[in-house]
TrEMBL record:
It catalyses: 1-(5-phospho-beta-D-ribosyl)-ATP + H2O = 1-(5-phospho-beta-D-ribosyl)-5'-AMP + diphosphate + H(+). This is Phosphoribosyl-ATP pyrophosphatase. Belongs to the PRA-PH family. It comes from Kineobactrum salinum. Gene3D superfamilies: MazG-like (1.10.287.1080). GO terms for molecular function: ATP binding; phosphoribosyl-ATP diphosphatase activity. It comes from the Bacteria. InterPro entries: HisE, PRib-ATP_PPHydrolase-like. The lineage of its organism: Bacteria, Pseudomonadati, Pseudomonadota, Gammaproteobacteria, Cellvibrionales.
Length: 117
């Protein structure tokens, strides 16, 4: 697993037992799944708005803001996975398995009836 993701994954696992008063991650777990999902939705919307801004401005500032919003989204999806005892490494393994497989080929293979023809 990528170094940064691995470190963050370990910190997130530790924070599940932390004091919600001193840890943002612990406070999310304490508030529960609905709050975590609300944050994921909010951050996804912020990514979309920042992407539109970045495309409009075409500026470095817009792209920098977009990177920050994507980081917020990735972070909150990692908290969601941790809350549901899903392994972030499994997501990376899934993407790794897909390397080299065209999305269009995968889609066509999916729509073929069982047994071919
Ligand atoms: N990567 C992050 C990270 N990214 C974003 N955030 C927080 O996510 C929150 C969401 O941003 P918003 O602007 O939506 O926040 P808000 O309006 O205050 O949130 P709400 O009150 O609406 O829920 C902010 O408080 C950010 O600081 C993060 N908080 C923590 N981490 C990592 O998690 C580790 C553990 O953090 P703690 O649990 O706080 O120790 C940290 O060391 C970091 O590595």
């Amino acid at each position: 697993m990528n170094d940064v993701l691995q470190q963050l994954d370990q910190i997130l696992a530790q924070r599940r037992q932390a004091d919600p008063a001193s840890s943002y991650v612990a406070s999310l777990h304490h508030k529960g799944l609905n709050k975590i999902l609300e944050k994921v939705g909010e951050e996804a919307t912020e990514v979309i708005l920042a992407a539109k801004d970045a495309a409009g401005e075409g500026s470095d500032g817009g792209r920098e803001a977009l990177v920050g919003e994507v980081a917020d989204l990735w972070f909150h999806t990692l908290v969601m996975l941790s809350h549901l005892d899903c392994d972030a490494a499994a997501v990376l393994a899934c993407l790794q398995q897909r390397l080299g497989l065209s999305g269009l080929e995968e889609k066509n293979a999916r729509s073929e009836p069982a047994g071919g023809h």
